[in-house]
Design goal:
This protein has 259 residues and is mainly α. It has a domain of 71 residues. The protein contains 15 helices and no strands. Helix 3 runs antiparallel to helix 4, helix 4 runs antiparallel to helix 5 and helix 9 packs antiparallel against helix 10. The longest helix has 17 residues.
Length: 259
């Protein structure tokens, strides 16, 4: 597929392998201008691959080609922002690119999520939270957005605000690890507020929803210890080991309790 991409644009040939000239000529005959937006998406995904490999210059070129072919491709602007920030340290230009993408994708949940998360990653918490809150008004039950917003608030020790967001997230029923994750984060917020019994209830519920999470059993053990119930704490740590025998944290806790 990438070989075919090269036939349609004027991007530096170092981005892709050189195809057979005859194949290039034939491919050019197939392409109509109306297909350029679709080609933009192909360059966008190529740019993401290059970015993930930390080939920053090539990623920036590919994403620039995506935008040239499809100027409305909001995701490409967000991706460019990540390259500029983390590949080049150009945060001012990166923020401007992110804002352009957010403007273009103002009704697109995935764009708002990626844009808000990027702004949080560069410590623009106020704007990042604003973008994520906008996303929650469009899709109130989106767990990914709620959890990202809640984690940002919790990291800043804004426990009451985090509690509201994680409570909202915990009401979204998926019956899997995602729902369990909402209860875990709600439990962690309760710990931060000193409400250990409430935290215990959330961790227990998460364990029922997703018993394969070894770290949750360690959290359970920690809370039981804080509440003075050593027997249940020991049981929780042992359950963590039953899920993953290599869990060093659980092993250390058991060893400390048995001294």
């Amino acid at each position: 597929m990438i070989l075919l991409i090269h036939t349609f644009g004027s991007v530096d040939s170092s981005l892709v392998a050189v195809a057979d000239p005859a194949a290039i000529t034939q491919a050019q005959r197939w392409i109509e201008p109306a297909l350029e937006p679709e080609l933009g998406y192909i360059w966008y995904y190529t740019g993401l691959t290059l970015r993930d490999k930390e080939e920053w210059e090539q990623a920036l070129k590919a994403l620039g080609q995506a935008i040239e072919l499809n100027p409305e491709l909001a995701e490409a602007y967000i991706a460019q922002a990540t390259v500029l920030a983390f590949g080049y340290g150009n945060y001012e230009q990166a923020r401007a690119k992110a804002e352009e993408g957010i403007r273009l994708g103002s009704q697109d949940i995935s764009v708002l999520f990626e844009g808000g998360r990027f702004l949080l990653d560069i410590a623009d918490n106020k704007r990042g939270e604003q973008v994520l809150r906008t996303a929650t008004t469009l899709e109130p039950d989106n767990l990914h957005i709620l959890l990202e917003l809640g984690r940002s608030l919790l990291a800043q020790q804004r426990f009451t605000e985090a509690l509201d967001i994680f409570t909202q997230a915990s009401l979204v029923q998926t019956g899997d690890w995602q729902e369990a994750s909402a209860h875990i984060w709600l439990g962690r917020t309760y710990v931060g507020l000193g409400r250990l019994q409430d935290a215990l209830g959330e961790f227990e519920l998460a364990a029922q929803l997703y018993p394969a999470d070894r770290d949750n059993f360690v959290r359970l053990g920690d809370v039981y210890q804080l509440l003075g119930d050593k027997a249940k704490a020991l049981e929780a740590y042992q359950r963590a080991l039953s899920v993953d025998p290599t869990n060093e944290r659980a092993r250390e806790c058991i060893a400390d309790m048995q001294k």
